[in-house]
Amino acid sequence: MCGILAVFGCIDNSQAKRSRIIELSRRLKHRGPDWSGLHCHGNCYLAHQRLAIVDPASGDQPLYNEDKTVVVTVNGEIYNHKQLRENLKSHQFRTGSDCEVIAHLYEEHGEEFVDMLDGMFSFVLLDTRDQSFIAARDAIGITPLYMGWGLDGSIWFASEMKALSDDCERFISFPPGHIYSSKQGELRRWYNPPWFLEQTPSASYDPIVLRKAFEKAVVKRLMTDVPFGVLLSGGLDSSLVAAVACRYLADSEAACQWGSQLHTFCIGLEKSPDLKAAREVAEYLGTRHHEFHFTVQEGIDALEEVIYHTETFDVTTIRASTPMFLMSRKIKSLGVKMVLSGEGSDEIFGGYLYFHKAPNKEEFHQETCQKIKALHLYDCLRANKSTSAWGVEARVPFLDKEFINIAMNIDPEWKMIRPGRIEKWLLRNAFDDDQKPYLPKHILYRQKEQFSDGVGYSWIDGLKDHANSQVTDSMLSNASFVYPENTPTTKEAYYYRTIFEKFFPKNAARSTVPGGPSVACSTAKAVEWDAEWSKNPDPSGRAALGIHTAAYEEAGDAENGNVLSGSKKVREGIVEKAAAVV
């Protein structure tokens, strides 16, 4: 991941303004510690902080066309850049960077080229010939981008809110799958897949097609010139990423540089579910496994940094971001700069435990669509910002455009959870190969465990206890007066909000964070699927009462999410997950 900052239409184009742009760009240096670049043209500025993954030697940014009339600053990876170059043979490329194709595609196709890009990206492009500019963000919002407006009429773009919040009167999270054109003066959607309309699809389920599409998505993300690995929690999604990467790594260009043994990484509290499961998967796959431990106190001590970097006060995001933030620091210390991760599968296949209560396939499908559309505010934000805080790039093969289109075109009846059919059954079944197994059966059919739960159940309980000690009953009862917008309803949420407001006090900042009731990561609409859930609005997977094998006790200990009486207790021990259930 890199950090980009672009400013257009400043009244002041003095040396002082240039110095200010450099100062603000440095707030993104954690994202790109390898190089800093700045291009100035009149009252337009394009700054870049580079994390060098592809072509470290010559791919510094900003990037240009042949005569430098087109300038682009990019955060992300373009996986099909070699194929695109084949159609741009009349153009002269200056670097081996995958992102340079953007400048030349613009020359050939104008603004109508973004859908040609296969990758994760946010970019800003300046055409100095007419002073026009465009900005675009990838289909799902894997890479972050913010857009702001200054009182002097300037328009700003930045990878993180902290680089523009002080200088913009208003700013927003740039919507995924959109492009902004200065010529048209508005945002428009460039990504328009069939599933976006949320109409129930009817295609039949073909496990081989689904498997091959995912394998292709993993293989294309092995494009790297630096050491890499896989984040392995031992759950289904990360285990499949690791299994596929192991199977195809030896034939990849990356293996020529870094060897054919895959590195895997996991973090958790001592004796947590994830550590045990990840260790078993790593042994089965033969990876070089790195296991990191943290304590509840170490996590609590990191909360302020986590909130500063993730730029959110969403409870679920902070719970899961903290161990990921701590792990990323360890990973970077080993010299690794890129990791594959398993985000996105639960949204596509209805993997969260609350999907057990979906009343019909139509509502099931609509919920998955809504979850994918909101990924940029939750899991994508977490995965990107928690890792980039330490200069590590996370790639997410489940959010491959082609794979999403195939998976979201399947009749959702196949995704519905039925007796004898566990959540994400069609994905598990696609990789259930007795002849050449990808994973052990009991891992392939392990129950869904949210990352913030899987690192150790006492992690969430410890967070609630800490919030209890910091937030009084009186503070929570007056929360609607202190925070009338997106009012926190629990002491834990209130505590995170106070930290967030310290770093980002503007109304525009708090408006970038989503809100509303949720159980086990559901949307507000899905809370209506079970009347009991409204009494226990906690985003932890354990709030899915009667579904999770280590669910919160339903009586006596229930706090209705308000943590006014100490933390919930979890049933003693970790219940072993069932093996094959098909």
Structure at a glance:
The protein is α+β, with helices and mostly antiparallel strands. Helix content is 34%, strand content 15%. The chain folds into 2 domains: 3-192, Aminohydrolase, N-terminal nucleophile (Ntn) domain (Glutamine Phosphoribosylpyrophosphate, subunit 1, domain 1); 201-466, Rossmann fold (3-Layer(aba) Sandwich), CATH 3.40.50.
What does this structure look like?
- This protein has a 6-stranded antiparallel sheet with strand order 2-3-1-9-8-10. A 6-stranded antiparallel sheet has the order 4-5-6-7-11-12.
- The two termini are 40 Å apart.
- The radius of gyration is 23 Å and the shape is globular.
- It is of the alpha+beta class.
- It folds into 2 domains: 3-192, Aminohydrolase, N-terminal nucleophile (Ntn) domain (Glutamine Phosphoribosylpyrophosphate, subunit 1, domain 1, 4-Layer Sandwich); 201-466, HUPs (Rossmann fold), CATH 3.40.50.620.
- The protein has 22 helices and 17 strands.
- Residues 552-582 have low confidence and may be disordered.
- One of its GO terms (molecular function) is ATP binding.
- The record marks 343 as: Important for beta-aspartyl-AMP intermediate formation.
Descriptive key words:
17 strands, alpha+beta, 22 helices, Rossmann fold, Glutamine Phosphoribosylpyrophosphate, subunit 1, domain 1, 2 domains, six-stranded antiparallel beta sheet, 582 residues, disordered C terminus
Helix-strand blueprint:
Blueprint lengths: L2 E6 L6 H11 L9 E7 L2 E7 L12 E2 L5 E9 L2 H6 L14 H9 L9 E9 L4 E6 L8 E4 L5 E4 L11 E4 L4 E4 L4 E4 L17 H14 L7 E4 L4 H14 L3 H6 L4 E6 L4 H13 L2 E6 L2 H6 L1 H8 L4 H19 L4 E3 L4 H5 L11 H13 L5 H10 L4 E3 L5 H7 L17 H6 L10 H4 L6 H4 L2 H14 L2 H5 L1 H4 L8 H13 L3 H4 L72
Parallel strand pairs: 13-14, 13-16, 14-15, 16-17
Antiparallel strand pairs: 1-3, 1-9, 2-3, 4-5, 5-6, 6-7, 7-11, 8-9, 8-10, 11-12
Catalytic activity: L-aspartate + L-glutamine + ATP + H2O = L-asparagine + L-glutamate + AMP + diphosphate + H(+)
Pfam family, one: GATase_7
GO biological process, one term: response to stress
